[in-house]
From TrEMBL:
This protein's name: LacI family transcriptional regulator
Residue ranges occupied by any HTH lacI-type domain in the UniProt entry: 3-58
PROSITE patterns: HTH_LACI_1, HTH_LACI_2
Alphabetized InterPro entries for the sequence: HTH_LacI, LacI/GalR-like_sensor, Lambda_DNA-bd_dom_sf, Peripla_BP_I
Origin species: Actinophytocola oryzae
Keywords: DNA-binding, Repressor, Transcription, Transcription regulation
Length: 334
C-alpha cells in the first residue's frame, strides 16, 4: 500500500498542502522545526512522491517515452537500454510503449501522451513506412528516432549504412575474393537498400559482378540466414565469400556452410553486420561491421533531453561504423 501525502501530513500534524510544499523542495514556507518534522514523518512512513500526479499538475513528467516494435531484435533492445540509462543520468525516467499485434503505432503514442511524457524516442524500424506513426508524432512533442519516419520532419540518429556495405566489400576484395554473394534483410527495409547499394558500388568499381542469383533476401533470423545460404549456394556453388546483413543471420549462415562440408574460412569467408556480443564467440569468430547501437541510444537520449530543454538539434545525426576483423574471413583457396 502506498503512503500518501495526507498520511505524511497527518503524522507531522500539518495540512497536506503544507506537507506538499515542503516535500516539493519549497523553502521559507514553514519554520525549520516544522520542516524537520515533515521530513522525518515522510522518512518514517517510507513516502515516495507521486510523479504521475506531479506531471498532471505541471503538464511535465520528467519522463521520456519510448516507442519500440520488437525487443527480440537485439539492435532495438541495445538502443533502448542505452537510451534509458542515458536519460536516467540526466534526470529523466523512461516509459516504454511497445507496438505489437494488439497495439498499433497510434495507440502506443497515445499511451505515452496520457502519461504526459516530455518527449519521445522511436525505435521501431518495422514502422518506417507507416504513415500513421509520422502523423501522430509530428508537431506534438520533441521526438528523436532511431529509424526513418514516414513523411519526415523528425530528427533521426543512426549510422551511414552505405559505409557498412562499403567496408564489407572492400575487405573481401582486399582478400582476393571475386565470387561474392550477399544475404540481405527484407528488401522493403531502407537499411537493406542502402547497405546493398554501398556494397554493390565497391564491387562495380572493381569490375566484380554481383548477379541477382548471388543476392538472396532473408528475414533477419537464424533460420532465415540458414535457408538463404542453401538457396545461394544451390544457385551458385562457386561463391567464396558472403556478406550477411546482420550477425543473427550469420549464425545460420555458418551452420549451413558447415552442413555443406565447407572449410571456413578457406572455402567460404563470412562478414556479418552489427558486432553483437556473441560475434566473437562463434566458430569461427565472426568478422563483422560494428554498428554502435549503445552509443546511438545514449546519444539519442542526450539529443532528446536537449530538445526538451529548448535547444536546437541537427535533423540527421550519424555515428561511425567500423570493420572488426576476426577469423571468419581469409583469402580464397578455390
Amino acid at each position: 500500500m502506498y503512503v500518501s501525502l495526507r498520511d505524511v501530513a497527518a503524522r507531522a500534524g500539518v495540512s497536506f498542502q503544507t506537507a506538499g510544499k515542503v516535500l516539493n523542495g519549497r523553502s521559507g514556507v514553514v519554520s525549520a522545526s516544522t520542516r524537520e518534522r515533515i521530513l522525518k514523518a515522510a522518512a518514517d512512513l517510507g513516502y515516495v512522491p507521486n510523479a504521475m500526479a506531479r506531471g498532471l499538475v505541471r503538464q511535465s513528467s520528467v519522463t521520456v517515452g519510448v516507442v519500440a516494435d520488437d525487443f527480440a531484435d537485439l539492435a532495438v533492445s541495445q538502443f533502448v537500454l542505452a537510451a534509458q540509462r542515458a536519460a536516467a543520468s540526466r534526470g529523466h525516467a523512461a516509459l516504454i510503449s511497445s507496438v505489437h499485434a494488439g497495439v498499433d503505432a497510434a495507440t502506443a503514442v497515445r499511451k505515452l501522451l496520457e502519461y504526459r511524457v516530455d518527449g519521445i524516442l522511436v525505435a521501431a524500424p518495422t514502422l518506417e513506412d507507416d504513415p500513421v506513426l509520422g502523423e501522430v508524432l509530428r508537431g506534438r512533442l520533441p521526438v528523436v528516432s532511431f529509424n526513418r519516419v514516414h513523411g519526415g520532419g523528425i530528427p533521426t540518429i543512426g549510422s551511414d549504412h552505405a559505409v557498412t556495405g562499403t567496408l564489407a566489400a572492400e575487405h573481401l576484395l582486399g582478400l582476393g575474393h571475386r565470387r561474392i554473394g550477399t544475404i540481405t534483410g527484407p528488401q522493403s527495409r531502407q537499411v537493406v537498400g542502402t547497405r546493398t547499394r554501398g556494397f554493390r558500388a565497391v564491387l562495380d568499381a572493381a569490375d566484380v559482378p554481383l548477379p541477382d542469383q548471388r543476392v538472396v533476401e532473408a528475414d533477419w533470423t537464424y533460420e532465415g540466414g540458414w535457408s538463404a545460404t542453401h538457396r545461394l549456394l544451390d544457385a551458385d556453388p562457386s561463391v567464396t565469400a558472403v556478406f550477411v546483413h546482420n550477425d543473427t543471420m550469420a549464425v545460420g549462415v555458418l551452420k549451413a556452410l558447415h552442413e555443406r562440408g565447407l572449410d571456413l574460412p578457406a572455402e567460404c569467408s563470412v562478414v556479418g553486420c552489427d558486432d553483437l556480443s556473441f560475434a566473437g564467440y562463434l566458430v569461427p569468430p565472426l568478422t563483422t561491421v560494428r554498428i554502435p547501437f549503445q552509443e546511438t541510444g545514449e546519444r539519442a537520449a542526450q539529443l532528446l533531453v536537449d530538445r526538451i530543454g529548448g535547444k536546437a538539434i541537427p535533423s540527421r545525426n550519424l555515428l561511425p561504423v567500423e570493420l572488426v576483423v576476426r577469423e571468419s574471413t581469409s583469402p580464397p583457396n578455390r
